[in-house]
């Protein structure tokens, strides 16, 4: 074996070691990336845990066809004019859900901070649009900042859907759907799960509008401005929460749970 052949063999061995090291590094990096993405993979595949995929497709279809007619866009207009003439000086937009009806009216839930308008405004008008964008004038029934909830009503002129409030709060990891109008995007459905329960901390909240101090649902069915007052529903198509606000930094929503919604409704009935 001549000197040149020996040098080539030594060089090949060195390259083999380098290649092995880089291959090992690449494998570690890929593995790390895969593991770090497990949360997102699990978030997606958790929808199918203990659930027939065909059943899930059926539920999503039913939400679009059966639940959406209970979804409302809520507008609160404040005028400095005593007679409410001209362009409103303030317009709040949020979401709502129909939960009750009688012979004349549909009754809906929304967030108190959506419909709260200061008494500085001489005239206050409220309107809702249904899922087909039909507009109705809405009338105040009851509200309370300690629940950040409000009840309004509007005259029944079209056939819409009334949803039931769940008899129990959703459990951790339970699948939930947010329905509402984030950034005024109509009839939006997002899906996620219950992450935990916690007392919300809102440093920017005015206690006259929102003063929630009880445990709320923390979930990742993404919401945004305009989702406030919108429904959080379970796989049974029951209302398990009313979205009140959320964090835009971690895409987590905060919802008043069903038990507190029912407590609020009972309080309204006793007024």
Question: Quick recap of the structure?
Answer:
With 271 residues, the chain is an alpha+beta fold.
Description:
The protein has 271 residues and is of the alpha+beta class. Among the domains are: 67-155, Trypsin-like serine proteases (Thrombin, subunit H, Beta Barrel), CATH 2.40.10.10; 164-259, Thrombin, subunit H (Beta Barrel). 27% of the residues lie in helices and 33% in strands. It has a six-stranded antiparallel beta barrel. It has a six-stranded antiparallel barrel with strand order 7-8-9-12-11-10. Strand 7 (175-180) and strand 8 (188-198) form a beta hairpin. The longest helix is centred in the first third of the chain and has 34 residues, at 3-36.
Distance between the termini: 103 Å
Q: Estimate the mean pLDDT confidence.
A: 84
CATH architecture of the domain at 164-259: Beta Barrel
**Would you tell me the structural class of the helices and strands?**
alpha+beta
State the strand order across the main sheet: 1-2-3-6-5-4
How many DSSP-defined strands?
A: 12
The major pleated sheet works out as: 6 strands, antiparallel, barrel
Instruction: Quote the CATH topology of the domain at 164-259.
Output: Thrombin, subunit H
């Amino acid at each position: 074996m001549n000197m040149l052949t020996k040098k080539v063999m030594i060089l090949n061995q060195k390259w083999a070691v380098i290649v092995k090291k880089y291959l090992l590094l690449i494998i570690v990096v890929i593995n790390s990336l895969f593991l770090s993405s497990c949360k997102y993979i699990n978030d997606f595949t958790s929808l199918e845990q203990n659930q027939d995929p065909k059943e899930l497709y059926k539920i999503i279809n039913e939400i679009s066809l059966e639940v959406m007619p209970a979804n409302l866009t809520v507008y609160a207009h404040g005028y400095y004019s005593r007679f409410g003439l001209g362009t409103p000086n303030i317009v709040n937009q949020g979401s709502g859900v129909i939960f009750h009806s009688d012979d004349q009216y549909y009754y809906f839930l929304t967030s108190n901070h959506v419909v709260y308008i200061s008494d500085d405004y001489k005239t206050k008008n409220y309107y809702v649009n249904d899922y087909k964008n039909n507009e109705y004038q809405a009338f105040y029934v009851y509200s309370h900042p300690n629940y950040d909830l409000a009840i309004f009503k509007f005259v029944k002129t079209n056939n819409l859907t009334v949803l039931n409030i769940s008899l129990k709060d959703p459990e951790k990891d339970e699948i939930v759907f947010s329905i509402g109008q984030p950034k005024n995007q109509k009839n939006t459905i997002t899906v996620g799960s219950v992450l935990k329960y916690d007392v919300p901390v809102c440093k920017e909240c005015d206690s006259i509008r929102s003063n929630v101090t009880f445990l709320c649902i923390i979930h990742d069915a993404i919401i945004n401005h305009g989702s406030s007052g919108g429904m959080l529903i379970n796989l049974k198509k029951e209302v398990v929460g009313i979205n009140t606000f959320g964090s835009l930094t971690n895409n987590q929503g905060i919802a008043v749970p069903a038990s507190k919604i029912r407590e609020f409704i009972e309080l309204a009935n006793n007024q």
